[in-house]
Design goal:
212 residues, mainly alpha
Amino acid sequence: MNQRLQSHIFWGPHAPLSAMTGGALLIMASQRLAFALFCAWGLIWVFSLTALAYFSAKDFMPAKGRPVILLFLSSFICSVYLLLAAFLNPLLVQTAWFFLILVPPCCIGSGILEQLENLDPGESLPRVFLEALCLGLLIIALSLIREPLGLGSLSLPGGPGGIFELFSSEDPGGFFPVRIFSVSSGGLLLLGYILAVFRYFRSQYTGTEDEL
């Protein structure tokens, strides 16, 4: 069986926190929960439909230049997602489109399509979906730390401004946010601590030490 399919979806060598192919996306999309939810749906959409299109037409694709074709294909699928989202929440798309363009390179850069191309679609498509879901959930989890600590708020997609805040630091009795967590440097700092904890628990889970 394919080694990628056998590896653990979270602790394995191809997991988002192990490979870090979506590191930039983790930082940029986790600034607010609304952005993270928007990005998570985009990840599932792009990964799943790109894999479905690829596994259906891989016999007709030339071997030379295939990554470029896949990048254009995934970018088109991402554009369709942005277009559909613009009908539902145009203001959120205007605010958050810039990190959605990182989803297609993340999909192709993960190498999952090439590594699962010889498998049955019934095995490979669920794996692609789970890897996209895992990365999306990590972005959401990081946003649940960064937004309350950095901005003193918690937001959801919707509302007249594109984002609806469940609470805000401007509310009476609210706490003072630590602004560094809302910027990229704070996100990198927090991600570094999360990676350290992740490596420790992975070594406990797998019984092996990380290679430096």
